[in-house]
Specification:
It is a single chain. The strands form 2 sheets. The chain has a 4-stranded mixed sheet with strand order 1-2-3-4. Strands 5, 6, 7 and 8 form a 4-stranded antiparallel sheet that branches. The chain is α/β, with parallel strands linked by helices. It is globular. The model has no long low-confidence stretch (mean pLDDT 87).
Length: 229
């Protein structure tokens, strides 16, 4: 069984205790259907060294293998782009990325070998892994999930929303705290709407428009094979 702690000091200073694989899968099974969907977004706000992230990735790649085998290059990157993690320890973030890269590489090599397509050259494999690493380095953030700020720089935690269309990748960034603020406003609007739903004389029955966070930054579309550029 893998150790659940790296050191007593880290447990004392940060409450760092990793979740066992058995418990990880039991918890993911509570949302089993979603965990296998390639496009479902998952955020682990205290991801440690990636125990939840790697199991989510394994499930998503299983779906790619069974449902999108003909376009595994694209859909495996889609799977990666919908997994997010935050951790206050930089080494945990780096370890999470490396664990996920290893899984992704093994998946790609298996699918490449099974496809028998000659265009899957070594250069293509290297491009794929550079794209995968770039996405993960953007999505796995060294920050404080309680404050919404990055640790390595005096800036807010920003999440990238990736959209894959044809051979293009579209990216829009949103501040974590702005996303939380918008979600809280939507919850308050829904609560108000629900409370007034049984009032025949209510003037506030009209559906509230969903509040969306303001984009932090928009990027020019990436070529699917050159996301890291």
């Amino acid at each position: 069984m893998e150790s659940q702690v790296k050191s007593k000091d880290r447990v004392k200073n940060h409450g760092e205790v990793f979740t066992n694989k058995r418990e990880v899968n039991a918890m993911l099974d509570l949302v089993k259907d979603e965990s296998y969907k390639v496009n479902s977004k998952f955020l682990e706000p205290a991801c440690g060294n990636g125990n939840f992230l790697v199991e989510i990735l394994n499930r998503k790649l299983e779906t790619v293998k069974t449902k999108h085998a003909q376009d595994y290059y694209k859909y495996s990157l889609v799977a990666l782009s919908n997994i997010y993690g935050i951790d206050i320890q930089k080494d945990n973030c780096e370890e999470s990325v490396e664990r996920m890269i290893e899984i992704t590489k093994n998946f790609y090599d298996e699918m490449k070998d099974n496809s028998g397509v000659e265009e899957n050259s070594e250069n293509q494999s290297n491009l794929y892994l550079e794209n995968a690493r770039f996405i993960l380095n953007v999505n796995i953030i060294n920050g404080d999930g309680l404050t919404g700020m990055r640790v390595d720089k005096d800036s807010p935690i920003v999440f990238s929303e990736w959209t894959f269309k044809d051979n293009k990748v579209y990216r829009v960034d949103y501040e974590m705290n702005e996303m939380i603020k918008a979600e809280k406003q939507n919850e308050a609007n829904k609560k108000m709407s629900d409370e007034n739903s049984g009032n025949l004389f209510s003037l506030t029955k009209t559906a509230q428009k969903e509040v969306k966070p303001k984009a932090y930054k928009k990027y020019e579309p990436y070529n699917l094979n050159e996301v890291f550029e």
